[in-house]
Amino acid sequence: MSVVNVPFETNTARLHQQLVRDGKLAGEFDRTYLDNLKNGVRYWDGKEWRKEVCRVNAPSVITSD
User: Fold this and answer.
1) pTM of the prediction?
2) Which of 9-38 are b and which e, b meaning 16 or more Cβ less than 10 Å from the residue's Cβ?
3) How do 49-50 and 43-44 pair as beta strands?
4) How many CA atoms are closer than 13 Å to the CA of 61, on its beta-carbon side?
5) What is the three-state SS of 25-45?
6) Strands annotated E in the chain
7) What do you get for the CA distance between the two ends of the chain, in Å?
8) How does DSSP classify residue 14?
9) Integer Cα distance of 17 and 53 in angstroms
10) Choice among 3-17, 26-40, 49-63 with the minimum mean pLDDT
């Protein structure tokens, strides 16, 4: 799996605007912010976090019958 898009949610934008008006938050909540959020995701390869998408095979499960 990899992140393809971070959707813009109207309720989140409304809350952000309210926090800015209250002086509790600064900065823009725009497409650039969402793209940076998407590009900042790191993927676990089973040993370390990587910027590149990687495949992790599920561990084998041994069951006793």
Assistant:
1) 0.60
2) eeeeeeebeeeeeeeeeeeebeeeebeeee
3) antiparallel
4) 3
5) CCCCCCHHHHHHHHHCCCEEC
6) 43-44, 49-50
7) 33
8) H
9) 33
10) 49-63
